[in-house]
Amino acid sequence: MEQQINIEVNSEKRTYTVPEIARMLSISERTAYNLCKTTTAFKVISLGRSVRIHKQSFDEWFSQ
Fold first, then answer.
1. Are strands 50-54 and 15-17 parallel, antiparallel or unpaired?
2. Scanning 8, 32, 35, 38, which has its CA 20 to 30 A from the CA of 51?
């Protein structure tokens, strides 16, 4: 007997990718990766080889 699982996903984006912040800051992706590696100004989440940037913390830092 199959059991169906329904998972509701919030459609609001909660993270940015490195290419997205590179475009927002008008810098190269390599520079954006280096920024993410060294910053304490906003939250960076590393998942294996994948890097995500916490949207709210980045937006607050970017607005200052």
1. antiparallel
2. 8
Partners of 16 in beta bridges: 53
3-state helix, strand, coil in the chain (%, to 5): 40, 20, 40
Say if pTM beats, i.e. exceeds, 0.85.
no
Residue 58's SS3 state is helix
Q: Pairing state of beta strands 44-47 and 50-54?
A: antiparallel
Largest CA distance in the chain: 55
| pLDDT tens-digit readout, 1-49 | 667 776 666 678 899 999 999 999 999 999 999 999 999 999 999 999 9
